[in-house]
């Protein structure tokens, strides 16, 4: 092999390794655990990591000011609860009693600081009879 081919092969190998390392770092950075509130409370090792929590918005201590882009509420599990402070766009369907998913991290004071808030509203996708719509084999929803 000529001197130029050796340099090109080494440069290609270095570039491939660099791209692979960046891809692995990006995947690790974007990875978050999805937990129910009770699972989160029972996992102290997860409480210092960025996670997604699923629970129901409690009525007590509920504050939502969409014009100020803030919400503060208790996220309820079956047996426990986590206090959540959220800063960002408050979804229209956000209210007490709704299932939500929040993403963020617990701070030193024990308050979950969320930067993502997503509402889950199954009733929006139910038919008039209260059943979830059925899909035909072609993926088209029907109300039957």
SSE inventory with pairings:
Blueprint: H1 3-30, E1 33-36, H2 37-41, E2 51-57, E3 63-65, E4 70-76, E5 81-87, E6 99-106, E7 112-120, E8 134-135, E9 141-142
Parallel strand pairs: 1-2, 5-7
Antiparallel strand pairs: 2-4, 2-6, 3-4, 4-5, 6-7, 8-9
Note down, in words, how this protein is organized.
Residues 132-144 have low confidence and may be disordered. Strand 6 (99-106) and strand 7 (112-120) form a beta hairpin. The protein has two helices and nine strands, in the order αβαββββββββ. The strands form two sheets. The chain has a five-stranded mixed β-barrel with strand order 2-4-5-7-6. It has a two-stranded antiparallel ribbon with strand order 8-9. It is an alpha+beta fold. The chain has two domains: 1-31; 33-125, Nucleic acid-binding proteins (OB fold (Dihydrolipoamide Acetyltransferase, E2P), Beta Barrel), CATH 2.40.50.140.
User: Percent of residues in beta strands?
Assistant: 25-35%
Low-confidence stretches: 132-144
Q: How many beta-strand segments?
A: 9
Could you say what the CATH topology of the largest domain is called? OB fold (Dihydrolipoamide Acetyltransferase, E2P)
The helicity comes to: 10-25%
Alpha-beta content class:
alpha+beta
Order of helices and strands: HEHEEEEEEEE
The N- and C-terminal alpha carbons lie at a distance of 70 Å
């Amino acid at each position: 092999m000529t001197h130029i081919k050796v340099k090109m092969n080494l440069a290609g190998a270095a570039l491939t390794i660099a791209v692979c390392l960046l891809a692995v770092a990006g995947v690790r950075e974007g990875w978050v655990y999805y937990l129910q509130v009770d699972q989160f409370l029972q996992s102290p090792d997860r409480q210092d990591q960025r996670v997604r929590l699923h629970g129901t918005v409690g009525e007590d201590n509920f504050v939502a000011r969409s014009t100020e882009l803030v919400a503060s509420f208790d996220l309820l599990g079956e047996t426990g609860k986590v206090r959540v402070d959220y800063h960002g766009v408050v979804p229209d369907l956000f209210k007490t009693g709704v299932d939500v998913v929040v993403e963020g991290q617990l701070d030193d004071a024990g308050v979950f600081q969320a930067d993502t808030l997503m509402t889950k509203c199954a009733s929006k996708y139910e038919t008039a009879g209260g059943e979830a719509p059925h899909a035909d084999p072609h993926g088209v929803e029907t109300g039957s």
